[in-house]
Amino acid sequence: MKKQLPTPTKKQWQAVIDNFKKVLPFAKKKNHLNMMETTAMAKNHKCGTIHCVAGWYAVALLKDGTINESEYVSYSDGAAAIAKQLGFKNDSQLESWANRNPDIWGNEDGINMFYSKKAYNGAKSLIEVVIYLEGVRDRSPE
Fold first, then answer.
1. Closest CA to 85 of 61, 104, 103
2. Is the pTM of this model over 0.85?
């Protein structure tokens, strides 16, 4: 029997969307979204350049102090923070939920939300990811 996973609410999705909106001024160009970029901050990586979805989330949380600055912050920090905000224990649970709920997620590629633009219907920029997540929010329960 599969473990029952929580279903994020509109309010939880909105909190995630609001965090992404904090970094939109730094991610306006189409080439600022690269789903294969694993680093958000490191000694030799300049913050605010190119990040994946979860990397941009980590940057948003660095800016508000939720994630502490250290020598290295990766996409996994952002992925864990998104999952926690949505009520999951970890990012694997969130990916499993998206895989089991394509009607809410919006396509069959939710399991790849931290690895592929296909999970966001081929989004080319962070604003397109935000627009996609607004659709997920709208399909979610109160």
1. 61
2. yes
